[in-house]
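Lab manual, section 2.4: Encoding a predicted structure.

Procedure: take the sequence of the chain (247 residues), apply the prediction step described in section 2.3, and record the output as structure tokens. A sample record is shown.
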Amino acid sequence: MNSTRRSQGLFLILAVGWVRSAAADTIVDVSEQWKAHVSTSPTSNGGSAGLPHVSTATASTAVPNNCECESLSNPEKLEQCTYAFTGTVIEASPPKKGKRNVSFDVDEVFKGSPKQEMPVVEEVSEADCDLPFEIGQSYLVFARWEWGAVMTSRCMGTKLLEKANRAALGPSEALKEKMYLHLRDACMGRLDTVCCLSSLKAMRVNYHVPEPEEGCPSGSVPDRLSCAGSYTWCIPLTETSHGPQER
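Recorded output:
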């Protein structure tokens, strides 16, 4: 599989490397698992796997004014899409009747259950606003199921991986599953085990992550169960809270 993971250690260490449960002050250390993940993640152009790539695009690569999109936070992009993943373009057809078919070799998954070879459709205008989708390039893809097809576009948030703020999405679903195992173990042998495990179950439903020490990122708010011993995690503003948090 062609893989160009650009996993971001800084976000995950803050978000899940040192997680405290609300009542028992239990610290869950998953930093070693993260370090092992980073050490096996390939980089390109000599970049670091631990920090996000910062785009330094010049005026020649700037998006034309008539291509402006609605400004969406990463939680909002995830909320509106059916699938979110990173992947490498393995096939891209020429535009035809205003559409272009593109297939990706999927690497990391952040939402949904895309196929390993995931076909998507882009609506094209044959202008500078269209995504190039060249074979061999890696993208962060936000896609939505619409009328029998999986659609994507630049305005959904899809962009070249090297120019994407991959860190803001947090860990992939596979890495979250490893984190959840550690959080489950930390619930055991406590007076509030039942509440702790219930909160972990609620957190896992939509693959949320625990609230980092500096607070939830923009576009999201903390959520938890109302019982003692609940973990606290971050949810999009549009999602229904489990507890009495103020918004």
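Check your result against the sample. The chain has five helices and ten strands.
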